[in-house]
Specification:
Helix content: over 70%
Structural class: mainly alpha
Strand content: under 5%
Number of helices: 7
Radius of gyration: 15 Å
Distance between the termini: 32 Å
Length: 140
């Protein structure tokens, strides 16, 4: 399991690269980028939580992610478009992957509240696989 955590950490570091400031510079039309930046920050906090056995820091780390997701959902329900950096024609697939990812995030947050670090580690691995899957199709 420790090897899995180490690989997870290295992969997150490799695949990260979106900073909060980069996302803010994109303007109000970049909700997806803002969400990815918030996820990047939450992932790094989750890795710290796993390494230092501090599950109590996980749930607060995902509050910004949930807030931005609500913005995305509100925007979509109002008929506004969300622009993807690649493969806009597969937007429905993006939504399915995003929904699946957020279901896994809820499991992670609930496990952290119960201090179940084994499930937290398993969820991080599932979530990372979903990140890689989505990025391989939708990230430039």
């Amino acid at each position: 399991m420790r090897l899995g955590v180490i690989l997870l950490i290295l992969t997150v570091i490799f695949f990260s690269g979106i900073s909060i400031s980069d996302a803010q510079q994109q303007g109000s039309d970049a909700l997806v980028i803002r969400e990815m930046a918030a996820l990047d920050k939450a992932f790094k906090t989750t890795i710290d939580a796993i390494v230092f056995n501090k599950p109590e820091i996980i749930a607060p780390a995902y509050e910004e992610v949930h807030k931005i997701r609500e913005e995305v959902e509100t925007r979509l329900k109002s008929g506004q478009q969300i622009t993807l950096s690649k493969n806009q024609n597969q937007f429905k697939r993006f939504v399915r992957l995003d929904n699946q990812f957020h279901r896994e995030t809820e499991i992670l947050v609930n496990a952290s509240k119960k201090k179940n670090m084994i499930t937290v580690q398993q969820q991080m691995q599932k979530m990372l696989k979903l990140c890689i899957k989505c990025h391989s199709v939708f990230r430039k």
